[in-house]
Design brief:
The complex is a heterodimer of chains A (300) and B (160). Chain A is mainly α. Chain A has 13 helices and no strands. In chain A, helix 2 packs antiparallel against helix 3, helix 9 runs antiparallel to helix 10 and helix 12 packs antiparallel against helix 13. The radius of gyration of chain A is 28 Å and the shape is elongated. The longest helix of chain B is centred in the first third of the chain and has 16 residues. Chain B has one domain: Rossmann fold (3-Layer(aba) Sandwich). In chain B, the strands form 2 sheets. Chain B has a 7-stranded mixed sheet with strand order 3-4-2-5-6-7-8. In chain B, strands 1-9 form a two-stranded antiparallel sheet. Classes of the chains: A mainly alpha (300), B alpha/beta (160).
Chain lengths: 300, 160
């Protein structure tokens, strides 16, 4: 109903042609598809191609299709057409007659992309792993039009952590088949660390994912594994363990906790550095003593 | 957008998996005298180690040639008896000289994991090279025990 309200004061036919006017009438009656056909023709075939009202109406019609006919499907092209149209309307709207209403629509379109991003991280689709990120980037692109000075760092951190978790969960279902998702997990956490290299969770999780990937590959060793393959697997895993190390050290530096010390014991153990294993094991025991009996110990 | 729970670190004993696989491959790449090619192929593990569990879990039903693998955990008295391959864990390194004396020249592949064990008479010794598990090989000792080491295994063994 947004557009019925905001177009109420507009007299189509004065500033626009008949096709646009007829389209508007169909739109008012809820006949979105027919309205879309006419408004597309009006813009393609008549001088309405430079009419703010026509572009604005087109944005509204396609937004209606997205909501009422496509039922907010993430695959709907109507939302894209609506977005293109409202951006065109804003550009043509030199007197800013529809400016405020356009911003309202842009906000709604932007929110719909954000909702898709959230939904896709929760209901991850392995066949389209980047869908959430693409939706989030579209949300950000529109938000930057609305709020050019907005800082997205905090939101980016939150999004990429959620995305990393969704990648990792899907990867863990079958690590041997879904190795691409391991790399996507690391990539997503890398984006967090690029924004804030002192993010404890991103450092810790990156270390764990590298470590676990190394372990997964060793777990694939079976009676069919010949010695050459064994050496290759071991080298691959050892490389992942070494990659885990700096992140776990960093996490431990940011916040020394039992889990980071356990992590360091584990990583040094698999790369056979017994001296370091003993050192961090001793540190872990010391911390456990400090934490003993204190259920609220922050570093547990 | 909430950050979900943190991942858990896997607690698999990767070292045991690697060593068990190496041991199985050693057995496949070494030739025992004909007289030893009947009955089960016996792998003995002396000392506490997850390698024993790993060998039981993955390899106990497999064959070396026509011989089915049988994995035995040896007691504190290292009475070797009939055995093809003997893996001695690090904690039992003090017993190595006694064990080797009892084996003498029998065709037993002794696998250890202590620096200097090759000099004591071990045939294969696990070592760590660049954060990776590797192995060194004493071909002369293998010859003394009538064991023929495959050329590929010789090539892959770590050389100082």
């Amino acid at each position: 109903m947004l557009f019925l309200t905001m177009l109420a004061g507009t007299v189509f036919g004065q500033n626009s042609g008949k096709l646009t006017y007829d389209s508007y009438e169909l739109y008012r009656n809820g006949e979105y598809k027919k309205a879309a056909e006419l408004i597309d023709r009006a813009i393609a075939e008549t001088e309405d191609s430079i009419s703010v009202e026509s572009w604005y109406l087109r944005a509204g019609i396609y937004w209606g299709i997205f909501n009422k006919i496509d039922l907010k499907s993430e695959l709907s092209d109507a939302r894209v057409v609506s977005l293109i149209s409202v951006l065109e309307a804003v550009e043509l709207d030199l007197d800013q007659i529809y400016y405020q209403q356009s911003l309202v629509l842009l906000e709604k379109i932007s929110t719909s992309y954000y909702n898709d991003a959230v939904s896709a991280t929760i209901n991850f689709n392995i066949d389209n792993p980047k869908f959430a990120e693409n939706s989030y980037l579209e949300y950000k692109r529109i938000q930057k039009i609305l709020y050019p000075d907005k800082n997205f760092d905090e939101m980016d951190v939150s999004f990429y952590k959620a995305e990393a978790t969704s990648f990792a969960k899907a990867y863990q279902v079958d690590p041997s088949k879904n190795k691409d998702l391991f790399y996507l997990t690391i990539e997503a956490l890398g984006k967090v660390l690029k924004i804030d290299s002192n993010d404890y969770g991103a450092n810790y999780n990156t270390a764990i994912y590298y470590y676990n990937e190394g372990v997964y590959q060793i777990e694939t060793i079976d009676t069919q594994t010949d010695i050459t393959e064994l050496i290759i697997i071991q080298k691959y895993s050892s490389d992942r363990f070494q990659e885990a190390m700096p992140y776990m050290l960093k996490a431990n530096e940011i916040r020394t906790r039992e889990e980071t010390l356990r992590g360091l014991v584990g990583i040094y153990n698999v790369i056979y550095d017994e001296e370091k294993v003993e050192y961090y094991r001793a540190e872990l025991e010391k911390l456990k003593e400090v934490n003993f009996g204190n259920e609220n110990a922050p570093d547990k | 957008m909430a950050f979900q729970t943190e991942p858990k670190m896997k607690d698999t004993d990767t070292n045991a998996i690697l060593k068990a696989s190496y041991i199985y491959n050693f057995a496949k790449m070494i030739d025992w005298p004909e007289a030893e090619k009947s009955g089960n192929f016996i792998i003995g593990v002396y000392g506490n180690s997850n390698v024993y569990k790993e060998l039981i879990k993955k390899y106990a039903s497999k064959n070396i040639g026509n011989q089915q693998i049988e994995v035995k955990k040896l007691s504190d008295t290292p009475s070797v008896g009939k055995i093809h391959l003997l893996y001695i864990t690090k904690e039992k390194k003090g017993d190595i000289p006694v064990i080797l004396k009892s084996i003498k020249k029998k065709p037993v592949l002794v696998v250890t994991e202590n620096s200097g064990s090759l000099d004591e008479g071990s045939i294969i010794n696990f070592i760590i090279v660049d954060a990776n598990l590797n192995f060194e090989l004493n071909v002369e000792q293998a010859d003394k025990h009538d064991l023929i080491v495959g050329s590929r295994l010789k090539d892959l063994a770590y050389k100082k």
